[in-house]
Design brief:
By secondary structure, this protein is mainly α. The protein contains five helices and no strands.
Length: 116
């Protein structure tokens, strides 16, 4: 379960400036992981969501952890005034997520490979 929970916990800690990770926040992360499962995944008897949805699961985990951090008063960067509802929180976290995009360093059409 670590690969499902901790990316979202780390994202939440970074985005919200969390001072400490509490037991309540870890519980909120676990609940978010379960809540992220689709009815089909549950019907298939899966324990965790499909790995192809890891970004979506991490987003859900991060949002739940941030909500809990705000309730517990351990976040330093966000306030309820800035994020008055779940939709605002989800949008904010989505904008803060890292989207890897790799640009080639060399134009492949300009390189010739010789084999020995």
């Amino acid at each position: 379960n670590n690969m499902y929970i901790f990316p979202g916990v780390g994202l939440a800690a970074s985005v919200a400036g969390v001072q400490q990770i509490t037991d309540g926040m870890l519980y909120a992360a676990a609940v978010a992981c379960v809540d992220a499962m689709t009815p089909e995944e549950v019907a298939d008897g899966r324990t965790f969501p499909d790995i192809s949805r890891i970004r979506q699961v991490s987003h859900t985990v991060a949002c739940n952890v941030i909500e809990k951090a705000m309730m517990e008063g351990v976040g330093t960067k966000l306030t309820k005034k800035q994020l008055p509802d779940r939709a605002a929180l989800e949008s904010f976290v989505r904008r803060k997520m890292y989207y890897p995009g790799y640009v080639p360093l060399v134009d492949p059409s300009q390189v010739s490979v010789t084999r020995r």
